[in-house]
Design brief:
The chain has helices at 12-23, 35-47, 62-76, 99-120, 137-141, 147-167, 187-199, 213-225, 258-271; strands at residues 3-7, 27-32, 51-56, 81-84, 129-134, 172-179, 235-239, 242-246. It is 47% helix and 17% strand. It is α/β, with parallel strands linked by helices and 272 residues long. It has a single domain (3-271), classed as NAD(P)-binding Rossmann-like Domain (Rossmann fold, 3-Layer(aba) Sandwich), CATH 3.40.50. It is built from 9 helices and 8 strands.
Length: 272
Amino acid sequence: MKTALITGASRGIGRSIAMELGRSGYRVAVNGLHEERINTVVEAIRHEGGAAEGYCANVADPSAVTAMVEAVKARYGAMDAFIHCAGHVQDRKCEQMTDQEWKSVLEVHLSGAFYCIRRVLPFMASHGGDMLLMTSTAGLMGSVGQVNYSAAKAGLLGMVWTLAAELRRNRIRINAVAPAALTDMTRPVIEYMKEKHAKRNEALPGFWQVGEADDVARFVSLLLKQRDPDLTGEVFGVNGSRITHWQKPLPVLSVNGADAFFAAWKQREEKR
């Protein structure tokens, strides 16, 4: 039986993934910040015949992550999958954003991923495994009013591309999923956009029409079942039943000399 540690698993996408992997035969280590919510998920997994234990820890705290990972290792003896879903938002335009709002979002999303990965690796390197980080289209394309969140999610992409190369020799795959799903975190923004466009008598743009957390969970479960060792360093968008494969950024214009470059840039813009 395989073991999966899932951060941010007490609600939203993390919870759905925990439930799905519990049904798929994983022993699930459920991480969150609130004991009551964690216990509810653990009991739900057990009620369906799965195996689960709860671990209350703030992933932004390195010492708490160390204690959590060591406890999971002591309980289950191995780690086969690590999935980083923990996150929160503190949205504000850049000029109004406080240093603490910037720091807190990067600490959970980006630093939290590093703290967990660094500590999980020794328990996965001997036999291989899977790591999966939740990124966002905000990290791929940017999102107004979310400079902290966009930067954190973009940072996770660099982490995935780098670690895919570093960890291949250990048979550890690492990928990213950019989910579009209605959750506690996204609901306020989506409801705001619905109201905004309704007042204008406009249809809600497709970008804001999202699927469910369970859609993401089903994709993650199937991704983990794929045995292709080259299926690593990839970024997948999941919105309902629609799956999108995102490529790494590619150079679109390369010219020798700054003057020649901007001349070519001007010609390129004029052709648009």
